Amino acid sequence: MKLYTRTGDKGKTSLIGGRVDKDHLRVEAYGTLDEVNSFVGQAMTLLDGEAFQDIYAELQKIQHELFDCGGDLAIVNGKLPYKVTAEMVTFLEERIDAYIKEAPPLEKFILPGGSKAAAAIHVARTVTRRAERCIVSLSKAEPINDIVLQYVNRLSDYFFAVARVINARLGVPDVEYERSAIVFREKGEQ
């Protein structure tokens, strides 16, 4: 098997249903998701021990789902069935809710960091936000699987929650942004 085809040497690439320039919004969107996937893989190498088996398994599941997101974004004509489903979004929401309960209460913005693994997850979170912006731009120009946008939006929240839990399990406190107002409140608080 050859890794190079020479078909992209003039700045074009193949999508499902056509060819586009390599700087096309679709390519930028799924390429940014590929970056996210790489950062997730890097973060996984920093998760040692039994304390993180659940998170490790979830991150591996998410890596597969990120490929699904990229595949859905690579469909030009929207005629193939999409892979990303509402159930994937629901799973992320359920895990976010569980991790919020596990982590210490949060009132203020925190600085990305703490442990090496949490810092790596924060990098994945910020690149996910960039991917989301790319997908929003694409959705304004061409039809997409709207659930991909929902999934990516929820994924960045998941990464935030996971980074906090990683720090909590390691006994590493989150560092509050020192000039932050109180921005997070429990439901029912004014």
From TrEMBL:
Molecular functions per Gene Ontology: ATP binding; corrinoid adenosyltransferase activity
One BP annotation, GO: cobalamin biosynthetic process
Protein name from the UniProt record: Corrinoid adenosyltransferase
Top-level taxonomic group: Bacteria
Signal peptide per UniProt: none
EC number: 2.5.1.17
Annotated metabolic or biological route of this protein: Cofactor biosynthesis; adenosylcobalamin biosynthesis; adenosylcobalamin from cob(II)yrinate a,c-diamide: step 2/7
Family per record: Belongs to the Cob(I)alamin adenosyltransferase family.
Assembly description: Homotrimer.
Keywords: ATP-binding, Cobalamin biosynthesis, Nucleotide-binding, Transferase
UniProt KW Iron keyword: no
Boundaries of every Cobalamin adenosyltransferase-like domain copy: 3-165
Organism of provenance: Anoxybacteroides amylolyticum
Catalytic activity: 2 cob(II)alamin + reduced [electron-transfer flavoprotein] + 2 ATP = 2 adenosylcob(III)alamin + 2 triphosphate + oxidized [electron-transfer flavoprotein] + 3 H(+); 2 cob(II)yrinate a,c diamide + reduced [electron-transfer flavoprotein] + 2 ATP = 2 adenosylcob(III)yrinate a,c-diamide + 2 triphosphate + oxidized [electron-transfer flavoprotein] + 3 H(+)
Record InterPro entries: CblAdoTrfase-like, CblAdoTrfase-like_sf, PduO-typ
SUPFAM superfamilies to which the protein is assigned, alphabetical: Cobalamin adenosyltransferase-like
Transmembrane domains' residue ranges: none
Gene3D superfamilies, sorted: Cobalamin adenosyltransferase-like
